[in-house]
Design brief:
With 397 residues, the protein is of the alpha+beta class. It has helices at residues 16-25, 44-55, 111-120, 126-135, 145-163, 167-170, 178-183, 186-222, 225-228, 231-238, 242-247, 249-252, 265-282, 287-290, 310-313, 315-322, 327-343, 347-357; strands spanning 32-38, 74-82, 85-92, 96-102, 139-143, 295-298, 301-304, 361-365, 371-372, 393-396.
């Protein structure tokens, strides 16, 4: 059944005090209830502006229960009266839900028609809607590159540790010990170490990048306004070699109580780590780091200086080349470097940076350049009414 032609015009907005009294007295409209889920059939920002322009601030019952922050199941809620029932409009995290109660004979097929009716009514409230939009702060959400890398590194570290690679005690003996050789199932062990060493290579490649991402995040958040306002100066600051960026943080950023001492043990260890990463990642041929055996030749006859086991010439070579034994130490090096940088900040700025660095998702206000945490880490969802197979919901109110 189509909506009545005067459906929108018949809607009125009771005072929130009246809504609260109905809630206390449980005098809300009884009867059939139908719930529709709108995702982007109608822009939630447009719908919010329209409802604000026409009816004023949200008056629905959920407004009495919401926290005064962005950590809510329902962010805004209007309850509108109709001669035949009530219309609830609830703004949530992943959709807008429309709940219709009372004697209105509507079905899921009327959902699109209501969205079209509301959209066609925008022109009647265009000026007021523009004023509402102007009052809204515009933020964009973005991924914190440093936190994204840290999450990836920590996940990969868990995977490596779960493999329990201990080559000192797990290496397969010489083939002369035939029974033990078979018992250890060579292929199975090789497969486990192959996976672990691949993960190790990835982590060691990412660790210096994670630390660099932290430095770049400091520049993004704390860069002095005079540098940020000049695109050439800003780009020059960002494009400097990593050691220069670190040494000049107290000059390019506000919030530092003292300069960074690049001769400190933490910075020296990180600098060494960067060089190690470059050799690893770029495939640099550094013989001191790549050699694993010495052999003489008499013509085409090899004469080994000393014999090495099959394990030492296969898995052992990869373990040394990938640097499995260095992994945990390099993790500690990066963490110590980042911690050292925080000790050079003022307490207030350190607290702010520590908070933001723990968040993968952040917000940026393009109007004033503010950076903030917009939402909690967890994602929550719910249906206001019983869910049906069509994506809406209906039942008895």
């Amino acid at each position: 059944m189509s909506l009545p032609t005067n459906f929108l015009a018949s809607l009125t907005c009771p005072h929130s005090k009246d809504v609260f009294e109905r809630l206390l007295n449980d005098s809300r409209e009884k009867g059939k209830a139908v719930t529709w889920a709108w995702r982007n059939e109608l822009s939630p920002a447009d719908l919010y502006s329209y409802l604000m322009a026409r009816f004023g601030k949200p008056n629905g019952p959920q407004n009495f229960f919401r926290n005064d922050d962005s950590d809510n199941l329902i962010h805004w809620d209007w309850m509108l009266d109709h001669p035949a029932g009530q219309l609830y409009v609830l703004g949530m995290n992943f959709r807008t839900e429309i709940l219709i109660t009372g004697d209105l004979d509507v079905t899921d097929t009327d959902s699109a028609e209501l969205a079209t009716l509301i959209k066609s009514d925008f022109s009647a409230y265009g000026q007021k809607m523009a004023e509402v939009r102007k009052s809204l702060e515009k933020w964009v959400e973005f991924v914190n590159p440093y936190k994204r890398l840290r999450i990836a590194v920590e996940k990969l570290l868990l995977d490596v540790r779960a493999l329990d690679l201990q080559p000192e005690t797990q290496k397969i003996p010489d083939i002369a010990a035939v029974d033990e050789f078979r018992e250890n199932r060579w292929e199975e062990v090789l497969s486990r170490y192959s996976k672990g060493l691949g993960l190790c290579f990835g982590i060691r490649s990412m660790l210096p990048v994670m630390a660099e991402a932290y430095v770049n995040f400091l520049l993004f958040v704390l860069m002095r306004p005079e540098l940020k306002a000049d695109e050439r100066l800003k780009e020059n600051t960002i494009r400097q070699p990593i050691d220069v960026r670190v040494k000049t943080l107290h000059m390019t950023c506000f919030g530092f109580a003292k300069p960074i001492d690049y001769a400190s043990p933490e910075c020296k260890a990180y600098h060494t780590l960067v060089n190690e990463r470059n050799d690893l990642l770029h495939g640099n041929v550094v013989l001191d780091k790549l050699t694993f055996n010495e052999v003489y030749f008499q013509g085409k006859v090899p004469v080994f200086k000393e014999y090495r086991s099959m394990w030492e010439r296969s898995v052992g070579v990869e373990i040394k080349a990938v640097g499995l034994h260095r992994l945990e130490g390099e993790v500690a090096t990066v963490n110590a470097f980042i911690e050292y940088l925080t000790t050079c900040m003022t307490p207030a700025v350190k607290k702010q940076i520590d908070l933001m660095c723990e968040k993968r998702d952040l917000g940026w206000n393009s109007q004033n350049g503010r950076i903030g945490v917009l939402f909690p880490d967890h994602l929550v969802d719910m249906f206001a009414g019983p869910k049906t197979s069509s994506g809406g919901a209906e039942g008895d109110a």
